[in-house]
Amino acid sequence: MFDDENAQYLVVVNGEEQYSIWPAVRDLPGGWTAVGDPRPRKECLDHIESVWTDMRPKSVREALDNAGSLITQGSRMVLSQLVDADELKAMSPEELRNMLASLDDELVYGEDGEVIEPSPGAETA
Predict the structure, then answer these.
(1) Which long-range contacts (CB under 8 A, 24 or more apart) does 17-25 make?
(2) Contacts of residue 125, Cβ cutoff 8 Å, sequence gap at least 6
(3) What is the pLDDT of residues 33-54, one digit of tens each?
């Protein structure tokens, strides 16, 4: 039924912004909404290919975007204690990550995973 080149189909999308095709003669399944009018299978698939450029479900994209935003905010708070505020504002997220990575490379960790604070004036290797 889904491979009949002569049938008319609908492009459908669900709440997670995932796309599919559905035979135009059948009722839509729950949770799916039609996008546009019925059309040939190939046109539906071409449309989906052009609009569905990120295959991750919406909830995953949002979670990753929020996590990245929280990491960036936390990074900015940490770096604001170490870097001039104007310099910090001008940094891109990639520059922030690189700076944090270089700072992390300089830290010494104890067996419990806690950072060992160097003594004032102590030389680091």
Answers:
(1) 17/52, 17/57, 17/58, 18/52, 18/57, 19/48, 19/51, 19/52, 20/48, 21/45, 21/48
(2) none
(3) 999 999 999 999 999 999 999 8
Mean per-residue pLDDT over the chain, rounded: 77
Three-class HEC string of the chain: CCCCCCCEEEEEEECCCCEEEEECCCCCCCCEEEEEEEEEHHHHHHHHHHHCCCCCCHHHHHHHHHHHHHHHHHHHHHHHCCCCHHHHHCCCHHHHHHHHHHHHHHCEECCCCCEECCCCCCCCC
- Output the six-digit token pair for 65: 């975007």
Residue 104 has pLDDT above 90, yes or no: no
Q: Provide the residue type at 34 as one letter.
A: A
C-alpha closest to that of 7 among 45, 35, 47: 45
For residues 96 and 69, the answer to whether their CB atoms sit within 8 Å is no
What pLDDT does 119 receive? 47
pTM of this prediction exceeds 0.85: no
